[in-house]
Amino acid sequence: MENLKQSFLAGLFSIITISILTILTYKTEYGIFLLASFGSSMVLLYGYPESPFAQPKNVFFGHLITALVGLFFLNFVPLPIYITIPLAVGFGVGLMIFFKVTHPPAGGNPIIVIIGSVSLDYLLSPVITGSIIIIIFAIIINRFILKKSYPS
User: How does pLDDT run across 26-37, given as a tens digit for each residue?
Assistant: First the structure.
């Protein structure tokens, strides 16, 4: 029964959080707040908030570092896409581990950045602003609604 409750609440709070990002993206003029890997972040933030990979510094810096790596490879590594994507993912994963800010969903960010050919503005919105929003929601929901010790 506890598993049913945990899965229901994780799904519900994921809907709420991604809904806010979607509304901000499509119903306001504030910019883009959605990043595909945020969907995967929901699994950790609401399903397994005690995980070291779900902690705010990991979420924020994991997304930031891997997006930066994607932008670096997109703009400064003049190789075919089938070479830059795996290199960027590898470097992004390695840097997250090196800096101790591993957030597995962020591993896909270089792919998103390179395939989408995004600009530097992508770092501010959706990467930084979206990460801050999902972290705030995770803290509010986990700490104040679910009464969990988050961040740990």
Answer: 999 999 999 999
